[in-house]
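Lab notebook: predicted structure, single chain.

Context: the supervisor wants predicted structures on file for every construct in the current expression panel, including those that have not yet been purified. This is the next one on the list. No modifications to the sequence; it matches the entry in the shared construct table.
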Amino acid sequence: MKKINQLLNMRKLLPILIAVILFSEIYSASAAIAFDASSTGQSASSSVNVTHTTSGNNRLLVVCVHTVPGAGYHCTATYNGVSMTEKAYMGDISTVSIFTLVAPATGSHTIAVSCGGSVSQINVVGLSFTGVSQTTPIGNTENLAWGNRVTTHTWNFTLSNTNSYTVECQGTQEDNSSGMTQSGGQTGFSLNGGSMTMAGAYKAQTSSGAITLSNSWSGNAQILETIIEINAASATIPIVTTPTSSSVTTNSAIMGANITSDGDAAITARGTCWGTSVNPTTNCVAEGGTTTGVYTQAITGLPIGTLIYYRGYATNSVGTGYSTDGTFTTLFPASVNWNNSNVQEITLANNRSFTFINGKTEHAR
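Prediction complete. Output recorded below exactly as produced.
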């Protein structure tokens, strides 16, 4: 009997467990990473300044640095005066480094790279992205050196998360002024300087696990390679504020709200919910738009002379966000029987009308 009761209890808990699992899946959605901007610069000295412009939400700035010569030298990098973190480094005859900065200042600012020692050439590629996790922006990293002189190379890299990006920085260790070409769907930015070639490249990835990347260039050369994985920010429900109402009649009104954030996921619906109690989730009418910002819509079918609670809503892949409640009262028609009244004058407010019924009784709306 005890085992039977345990089984029955497990059956009762099963729907709850399924709901918890589904809830976890829904609310673990990732935002979409997007490329923001690029910049390049070089200097035949031990330092260089490059202007870079960033915009958008959940930003990450990645700076690829290639130095010649570079054995044992680690450079420093700042953006708008804020120190960047070296996330990957490979040094031999030359060096290749990757620096990152979470939430860089928006607008146009200076990437400043400084290297000590006898560095005589610096090549820099700046890449900024939006939709990146602000708490754990970097996943796996890898540093590679190709000692053989080749014209192409292919390597494996393991991704720790889905919907991430890979960013790789490459540099030659000997004369090669013909540039690099990225393959396999990568977008690259190549830069020649000091008879050396360097490149920064990125690619959107859809699944975790092992992937293959490849590059090619004209002329045999030894290559240094650094790779990092960029993690996507976790999407949230949209943020909706400021419910508004106007043009209230006996059974209709214009309602709206303001979507201040899409939660880093595309909005699929927005509109207004209304009811006769607080926090309405029924009578939700889609407005038709799918963007952030202020919207309004005409709602009909409201009950006459009733206190109405309403709020705006917006939906994305994570769920639905609501504004706070707004309230108004629909108008109630007034009735006057001239046969039993000494009323001599009636003044109507805005949006009210006066209707004669059977020539005797009149209704104001």
